[in-house]
Design a protein that fits this description.
single chain, 2 domains, mainly alpha
């Protein structure tokens, strides 16, 4: 099977079986591109996350586009991006068709209440994975903690935080 089809199928699977947005998809993206297909190393995956975070747009779409391009060029980026988005489009069309029937169903409410903790777990797993793989020494840990505090408690704009961390990284490393 060629890489374009592999990209489409891998990202279709990621889009179809992950709830909670791009951050919840990161563990599955990591598994697919590193463990299953060997397209990237852990270090390259962390670099991808840095690029994906700095570019506007959804994390999942940016990840798929970037991975697809690195693996198989423009056609690869199209295949991966369509693959990750298509399941959501299909699901939304199905939900829109049936929503009026089931809008007030307690079972639908129960299902979404059950999904919420799973999303939290997936996002937490992604954060821990990135933390474990990105922090390589005490200097990186300090940079991460300082930026986290500035963004979380002082409302520092994320773009300023990214630029500042990049400058600090260039100076320190």
């Amino acid at each position: 099977m060629n890489n374009i089809l592999k990209l489409f199928l891998s990202f279709f699977k990621i889009g179809a079986f992950t709830f909670g947005g791009g951050y919840a998809m990161l563990p599955l993206i990591k598994k697919e591109i590193i463990e299953v297909h060997g397209w990237f190393t852990v270090k390259e995956f962390i670099d991808i996350l840095a690029i994906v975070e700095m570019t506007p747009g959804p994390v999942a779409v940016n990840s798929a586009t970037f991975v697809g391009y690195k693996v198989a060029g423009v056609l690869g980026s199209i295949a991966a991006t369509v693959g990750v988005v298509l399941p959501s489009v299909i699901i939304i069309l199905i939900i829109a068709h049936f929503l009026s029937k089931f809008r007030k169903s307690p079972y639908v409410d129960y299902a979404f209440r059950g999904i919420r903790p799973v999303v939290l777990g997936l996002v937490t797993a992604a954060a821990l994975t990135v933390f474990r793989d990105a922090i390589i020494d005490i200097k990186g840990l300090i940079i991460g903690i300082v930026i986290f505090c500035l963004v979380s408690f002082k409302n520092l704009h994320p773009i300023i935080a990214i630029v500042a961390a990049g400058i600090v990284g260039m100076i320190i490393y």
